[in-house]
Amino acid sequence: MKLTARSVSLVPIVSTVAAAALGASLIMAGNANAATTLGAAAQQSGRYFGTAVAAGRMGDSTYMGILNREFDMVTAENEMKMDATEPSQGRFTYGNADRIVNHARSRGMRVRGHALAWHSQQPGWMQNMSGSALRNAMLNHVTQVATYYRGKIYAWDVVNEAFADGSSGARRDSNLQRTGNDWIEAAFRAARAADPGAKLCYNDYNTDDWSHAKTQAVYRMVQDFKARGVPIDCVGLQSHFNAQSPVPSNYQTTLQNFANLGVDVQITELDIEGSGSAQASNYDRVTRACLAVSRCTGITVWGIRDSDSWRAYGTPLLFDNNGNKKPAYTSVLNALNAGGPGPTTTTTTTTTTTTSNGPGPGDCTASVSLNQWNEGFVATIKVTAGSSALKGWRVTTTLSNGTVTNSWSANRSGTSGTVNWTNVDYNANVPAGQSTEFGFQGTGSGSGLNPTCSAS
Ligand code: G2I
């Protein structure tokens, strides 16, 4: 970065503060402080950059190296779908999903859950069901899976691809749709009850062009849900683009219009067929559109290398088959580094406070991780045993300006002011040095919780 004569000559006529700001902006323009990975670059504006991960590729060191280096959000490509998690009715299997979730969380990446209810990739037993039996089976599936992952998922695609393509603006016909038009809101309510801390999204494709009937239909559903208090927090635009379905010129308008309904918007499965500078420029446009919309909270690409893609023939991703960065990668990184306003109506702050309770056996400490937005918060409290195992524990929190509306994995007394929490049966025993977590959701502010822990 060169300081030009023009910028130097400005210094004497601006205040010290302005001069400092000028210096900072020049440094940014010269990219001296630019982030060098997608996740870090997205974080500069409070956003995330994610990818789809396939459990079957987790033994591939090139794949894992790129995943661990570049991304801070993960979506299981197939492993959390209905056929994977409930292969026979009432028998839930989470092995492959857990491998992905545990890897992500151990690396500090967050997880988007995909997907709780969908007409596709249903297990065989569900494909043959109808009516109230199917409705109940679907709701049970949503409840069980969202409960199993409670506290671990940033956002769930609660319902995926429920609208028809083409000009009808109608719901897609499916066995789920035939259980009644309210199946979508029923799924959202079940998901909220099961995991009140997760953002709940409706996710679809071909909803990128504002003028399309399908986009308009999804918009009207979200508008209706917001008006009637159906719990929905976000809309996912899959954004699979190619020559037949290019990045629309009104893409940013679409993102903004959804956001204006009072939901977050996420680009959930981005891939753009093509190569070279044409592909790079399309990726640049999509990234900039998200950055220009304050409630566009993050972007996920649908795979890592071209060869990992569901449509590898279209070379639609940011890394080539050998794991090398493509021009598209550089354009996304540069666009992210150029920044944009962070989410305004939803600010996520994570604060950790640790309070110890003196030396000796049976002690514990408690720390809080707080996700605060304008109207409310979710607090996750971690209880860690001291030098000997806990057989039961009690945590006290202070809620000066907030009220608890929901809690999980602990017994509670009180909803505001001093609120006391004790273990439930299954998390009473905590081995020495190990931790367990409980959580709660509230309205107002969750700051100043200052948890203290004692053995009981
Ligand atoms: O089709 C692209 C995406 C559209 N939106 C929803 C996403 O969930 C969907 O992902 C794709 C996966 O990328 C594919 O990997 O969903 C496909 C199925 O709908 C996935 O394909 C399936 C194959 O159809 C199966 O034959 C295969 O066993 O992947 C499975 C696991 O490799």
TrEMBL record:
SUPFAM superfamilies: (Trans)glycosidases, Carbohydrate-binding domain. Its EC number is 3.2.1.8. Residues 32-335 form the GH10 domain. Residues 357-456 form the CBM2 domain. PROSITE patterns: CBM2 (PS51173), GH10_1 (PS00591), GH10_2 (PS51760). InterPro entries: CBD2, CBM2/CBM3_carb-bd_dom_sf, CBM2_carb-bd_dom_sf, GH, GH10, GH10_AS, GH10_dom. The active site is at E269. SMART domains: CBD_II, Glyco_10. Residues 337-361 are annotated as: Disordered. It comes from the Bacteria. This is Beta-xylanase. The lineage of its organism: Bacteria, Bacillati, Actinomycetota, Actinomycetes, Pseudonocardiales.
